[in-house]
Amino acid sequence: MTQTPPTVADLLAHPVRFGLTLLAGPGAGRPIEKVTAVSTLPGVVHAAEGSLVVILEPPGSALTGYEADVAIRHAADRGLVALVLTGPVRLPVTSQHLAKRAQVPVLGSETAQDGAELLLRIDRYARGGASDALARAAAAIEAAQNAADAASDDPVAAVLAAAGDALGCTVDLLEYAPTAPNSPGAVVIGDQAVAEVVAGTHDEAAHVALPAVAAVVSRVRQNELNRRFAATMTRAELIVQIALAERAQLPQLSAQAQRAGLPVQQTHVVAWVRVEAAEGAPAGLFQQRQLLAALELAALQALDGRPGMWHVASFSGDLIVVFTDPVAGAHLYGRVRQEMQALLATLAERGDALVTVGMGTPQAGPDGIRQSAAEARVAADSAAVRGRRGTIADTDASGLRRILADLYSSPLSRGLLAELLAPLDALGPERSWIGVVTLSAFLDSQGSPTKTGRALHLHANAVSYRLRWITEALDADLDDPDVRFALQMACRVRLLGA
């Protein structure tokens, strides 16, 4: 397809790329058929018709009206498209009037430019094609990088504006994850595409520049998030350590938390967020990691600015949300639950995750973080086991889950209960897991193979077969109430830890 030759108006529309302003004459003019250069103003007399003439040696501030008038008259007589002065100059008033009458545009530069370089840029632009596309793309990338490095209240907007000026089109940021995460304009934070840079034109220059501009925006966004959430994320890492630590480690971790600005002696409410890929979504390890990172960022942004101190951390494929408040009270639980309900709705809108939230009760001090986290985890796991995924599960009023949580948080209790299941562990990881799951379901079903089979999607005969080798391995009498109770607690704590 034949490209329409540009005009003076097109040059003026790219101030970042050419740095030209209109000194006198019309701002449009005829199409530029040729770009040529002369060393001085009098050399204009030798330029061919239809040319835009670049004066390589910029005149000084003492430009005389006579020189300018003669050059403009020659330009009009020879049918030149425009004259370009390569330095900042004040055109005499008489020359301005003459250029207007002769319909000869006179362009000047706001700053002194290399005449040869300016000539090359204009010539590439006038010729079009691959060389112009590459030049515009290079100019857009350089402008975006410079805008990112400059101090600005809104660096992303500055990057987009600079790139758009260089490309000659609008460049916008669409605040959604692109359908194709590997699209040229994808803005990636960590491993997750969160937005997309798009250009208002589909020419080659935009196609070449978009990936680099998107990379600059990604870097700016990542830096903004690092500055915004660095302290919060550091404290969140300590919260995870406190939630999983032995009691003997709490004094040291509490001291670190205090130095990091986390008031561990206050009251905490923990919500445990189980994250699963939505039905039909990719469920590989890499995709799961990407999903968890995206949800962690979404949760941080959703809770940022909410009243109180909020922290979000990831652990073993799940998220831990902690609210800290100096005032203890029953209202804390309801307040946090309300915020988690809103967060659950926000995360569900994404459509790529199934999120189940377990709520812990308000607890004070570093040991309270451990207790509330254990309660929240038990509640989330219980909801998942009972088929209540995608909901908020409260800590039960009976206190059983809290008892399980306390047992799980105690190394001594875990050790004693693990001894009961040691014979199954001796059979190997896979057989041990089958045994624990089957025994737990059997005891929860009050010793009914039929109900156990329905829970595990097995035939009752298969359940009976499993129970024979399980009881033989454990050498346990399941008719003894104490034995049943101890094994049921051991199985539940084992499944909780899993």
UniProtKB/TrEMBL annotation:
It comes from the Bacteria. Residues 438-493 form the PucR C-terminal helix-turn-helix domain. Residues 252-381 form the CdaR GGDEF-like domain. InterPro entries: CdaR-like_regulators, CdaR_GGDEF, PucR_C-HTH_dom, PucR_C-HTH_sf. Belongs to the CdaR family. This is PucR family transcriptional regulator. It comes from Nonomuraea mangrovi.
